[in-house]
Design a protein that fits this description.
Largest sheet: 5 strands, antiparallel
Shape: elongated
Structural class: alpha+beta
Oligomer: single chain
Radius of gyration: 38 Å
Strand content: 5-15%
Number of helices: 14
Number of strands: 10
Length: about 425
């Protein structure tokens, strides 16, 4: 759209190039695209609003989704790009479509700057730059500058890269990074709200999706610059050999993470015991597992330890867990009464289940006591087991004292076979 600057030529250009049926058709296409995009955006916002009402926890953890602010100009950009490529293929006039496409590109970046950057001064500068670029591009005033940047180039292997490509790739990288990041968030949102998969499968799919998105963005940037990926083969081989030795533990933990998610042996929310660590899995990172203990401390355990070591998963297939409380009573105690008192104690502890029923076993006769074991069941190991045992021990102690049941303690008999003669002399005998 090369617009002349003298008055006569401008009038002729306006009547012969702008006020035409072809331009009217392009304006109609742009209007239909914007109308359709507006309706689609309203439907997308409505769907997200309904889902966030049903799943407020996602909004609390992730916050507002900035992608929703950019969805309308982004969809308009896609539709106008398709229309422009179609017009180019059939050799139809497309000056108006190109102008609309340029405006949408500028609007997308303006929205991105406003949603991603907190420095408002920098946002204003970039916003002015985006609209100025759109204006200069529409009227082809920026073409000499683009041609100048295109002439400054250098060789990278067989690829010839110009400063213009680098300049465009910079903004394209910013856009693709933002897209990959927020598409990953939307992908996780969809997995959490609409799919019926297990938490481990959701996390695995989310991580695989994120890797695919960011990898595809990197490959697209290299392709845009015209770089042949085969030139990285030798360099990648040498780098991979070095990283293999230097970062073998890191990669071992990453592969272990995928194995844990794939076989579902460890997943978020499980209650595990590993050596001296007992707690609930709070987060599965790429290298470590975060285990939140009952006292509030958070243990970061390498995933390799969970794959190669012995792990007790209290909630692997179910949450039903049996606890055993060892008890000893004196030999003179009424064992039937003791048994009933123990079973009565379990009724007062809220977390103890009555189905399966608690049990009391007589396990042996010790040196000082009759040994019994009280067995109870709980279905919430994520809340800890120490508090249940404490409540049971308190109840047993109170009932035994109220009913005269004696808790024995070790006793030893000392037998003295002979005592040597000891002469005790008083003070009066000295004289």
């Amino acid at each position: 759209m090369n617009i002349p600057f003298d008055l006569a030529s401008s009038q002729e250009y306006f009547f012969h190039q702008v006020l035409t049926w072809a331009m009217l058709a392009q304006i109609a296409v742009i209007g239909l695209a914007l109308f359709g995009v507006h309706r689609m955006t309203a439907a997308i916002h409505s769907w997200f609003s309904r889902q966030l009402v049903q799943h407020p926890a996602f909004l609390e953890t992730e916050g507002e989704i900035p992608f929703l602010r950019v969805i309308e100009p982004l969809l308009a950009l896609v539709f106008l790009w398709i229309a422009t490529r179609t017009a180019h293929h059939f050799h139809w006039p497309r000056e108006g479509l190109n102008a609309g496409l340029t405006i949408m590109i500028a609007l997308v970046f303006v929205r991105l700057f406003n949603t991603q950057m907190k420095n408002r001064f920098l946002v204003r500068i970039l916003t002015v730059y985006a609209w100025l670029w759109a204006l200069l591009t529409i009227f082809h005033i920026i073409d000499p500058w683009n041609n100048y940047l295109r002439q400054i180039d250098f060789q990278l292997g067989k690829a010839e890269i110009s400063l213009l490509n680098i300049y465009r790739a910079f903004f394209l990288s910013f856009f693709l990074y933002w897209m990959s990041k927020h598409l990953s968030t939307i992908w996780r949102f969809w997995l959490r709200t609409t799919s019926d998969l297990t938490p481990a499968a959701k996390l695995l799919l989310y991580r695989l999706g994120s890797i695919v998105l960011f990898s595809a963005s990197g490959v697209f940037i290299l392709h845009f610059l015209g770089i042949d990926l085969t030139i990285f083969a030798l360099f990648g081989g040498a780098l991979g050999l070095g990283l293999g030795f230097g970062l073998q533990k890191v990669f071992a933990n990453m592969i272990s993470g995928f194995l844990l998610l794939a076989d579902k042996s460890i997943k978020p929310g499980d209650v595990i015991a590993l050596k001296d660590t007992y707690g609930r899995i709070n987060f599965l990172g790429s290298r470590y597992v975060s285990v939140l203990t009952r006292n509030g401390t958070e243990h970061l355990i390498p995933k390799e330890s969970l794959v190669t070591g012995e792990v007790i998963n209290w909630s692997y297939s179910q949450n039903l867990v049996r606890l055993q409380i060892p008890i000893g009573v004196a030999y003179g105690s009424d064992l039937e009464k003791v048994r009933q008192l123990l079973l009565d104690t379990t009724v007062d502890v809220k977390r103890v289940l009555q189905n399966p029923k608690p049990g009391c076993l007589l396990v042996g006769f010790g040196d000082n006591a009759v040994n019994l074991i009280l067995q109870v069941w709980i279905n919430d190991p994520q809340n800890g087991i120490g508090s249940v045992k404490s409540d049971l021990n308190w109840g047993i102690w109170q009932r035994f004292r109220a009913n005269g049941i004696e808790l024995p303690f070790p006793q030893r008999d000392l037998n003295i076979k002979s005592i040597p003669e000891i002469r005790i002399q008083t003070k009066g005998e000295e004289g």
